[in-house]
Amino acid sequence: MRLTYAIVYVRDMSKAVAFYRDVVGLPLRFESPYWTEFATEGATLALHQGEEAHREDPQRLFAGRCRPGVEVPDLDAFHERMREHEVTCVQEPREVFGSRLASYLDPDGLVFGVSQAKG
Fold first, then answer.
1. What is the DSSP letter of 118?
2. Could you tell me if 93 and 1 are in contact, meaning their C-beta atoms sit under 8 angstroms apart?
3. Is 39 exposed, middle or buried (0-12, 13-18, 19+ CB in 10 A)?
């Protein structure tokens, strides 16, 4: 069995697309006002137009939340890119269980993780 997609519900599709495409750097596969897909080497990340969400503490792991993750070749370079775009970092790059990891907030306050490719 293999995970094929993850859906993130967003308030503002244009803002979310611009963030994941232009800031994070995911390649766009398909875009519409209510559904957008990014072509990654693994599972598809899809954005779906959602309703206004209640703001929770983004660092708490409430049931029913999603935390997408991406792998990058150079976490320090990615982190610098996020800083240049003034993206909120909720976990600075650090070693966790033998991997380099960091976490950031998307425009809707959803935490997404970033790991550095090994090797």
1. P
2. no
3. exposed
- Torsion sign (Cα): 23, 67, 39, 16: negative
10-residue stretch averages of pLDDT, the chain, 119 residues long:
80 94 95 92 87 59 74 95 97 90 92 86
Cα–Cα distance for residue pair 82/105, rounded to 1 Å:
10
Q: How far apart are CA 13 and CA 11, in angstroms?
A: 6
Tell me the C-alpha distance between 34 and 11, whole Å.
10
pTM of the model: 0.79
Complete edge-to-edge strand list for the sheet that includes strand 44-49: 5-10, 44-49, 35-38, 28-31
Half-sphere exposure of 81 (CA within 13 A, CB side): 15
